[in-house]
Amino acid sequence: MRRRQFLLAALASAGAWRWAAAANRKFAVTVVVKSLRNQFFTIMLDGARKHHADHAAEYQLRLEGLQSEGDVKAQVAMLQRAIDRRDDALIVAPADSRAVMPLLLKAIAQGMLVVNIDNKLDERVLAHENVNIPFVGPSNFSGARKVGDYVLAALKPGSKVGIIEGLPQAINAKSRSDGFRESIRIAGMELAGMRWGDWETDKGYQAALSLLDAVPDLSALLCGNDNMAIGAVKAVTERHRTGKVLIGGYDNIPAAAPYIASGAIYATADQHPALQMQYALDLVLQALSKHVGQAELQSIVQTPVELIKRTAT
């Protein structure tokens, strides 16, 4: 209780400083994403640049990201630098849904607005701390259901299916796997195994090889992102299972386009990363300009996700 009272007092004090300072300068907004190497996030950052070009008179923009999606320590350092600069707002796609929370609470206590994008923060921690950090993004569960339902509709009932999941500590990885599991259950298929590919092509390849070798009659691989799906395509090709094992992905990154066109990736989901970022920046700018505090921010801003499949020729 004492901690929460301190947080509320700090918010009031820091908020007064922020509004006074903002009257004399552009708002300072920092975006921190999970990866600079994953095309999904480069598209997201391009969306931020486009938004900033249209609103350059209103805010300054700083973009940062990780070289490795699991490098939580580096992301914590980026968040700390934003706090030290006393930025007005912070938009973060967390590498770990729990580990970054102390830094985000610190930012809020200082008076910064904090918005969560792409990978949802752990709701149990948010509830325990009694703090509102808006999430801007789609339902990963629903997006994965769309992919899973489409892929499995092409299989015979009772077919064996494997799942390749992203990082274990990422909430969106678990949500996508849960969506795939629901598709498997509804379709009357068998979940034959699951491996982790950590969002990366090489690790997705290794995970797919492991499943293919463990389950010789595997009929489908449902992958938590397109990088891992591309790795799965390589594994399926090496094991001479092309056409016998259907592959589902997620993200619709440019690198996946030729695989989708050829049918090597049977379907994926597009969650429009540039649009997600634009929604998040709109939320931040409106809140800053109207002096809306963290607690009053809209808690969820739903963004679209759509099924992408091979176009008939």
TrEMBL record:
Keyword hit for Iron-sulfur: no
Name of one Pfam family that matches: Peripla_BP_4
Organism from which the protein derives: Chromobacterium sinusclupearum
Leader peptide range in chain numbering: 1-22
Main location: other
Family indicated by similarity: Belongs to the bacterial solute-binding protein 2 family.
Record GO cellular component, one term: cell envelope
Protein name in UniProt: LacI family transcriptional regulator
